[in-house]
Amino acid sequence: MKVHTFTAVIHREDDLYVATCPEVGTVSQGATIDDAIAGLKEATELYLEEFPPSHLDRPLLTTFEASYA
Predict the structure, then answer these.
(1) Residue 64 domain-assigned?
(2) Residue 39 sits in which domain range?
(3) How does pLDDT run along the chain (69 residues), one tens digit per residue?
(4) How many independent structural domains does the chain possess?
């Protein structure tokens, strides 16, 4: 069994936390951050069982500034 470290990007929507894995495109949600990550792990493992990747690239994460009124 292969093990790979993935990225979880988490944001809050109303009363839930939403977790996304940018390497694979899986998404999950939960009442807590831990719940959202646990669901994301499960969703990602199920996805990878069905669609094993030929290679995995780490996303480039950065920040930027935007103006708004």
Answers:
(1) no
(2) 9-50
(3) 888 999 999 999 999 999 999 999 999 999 999 999 999 999 999 999 999 988 888 888 899 999 999
(4) 1
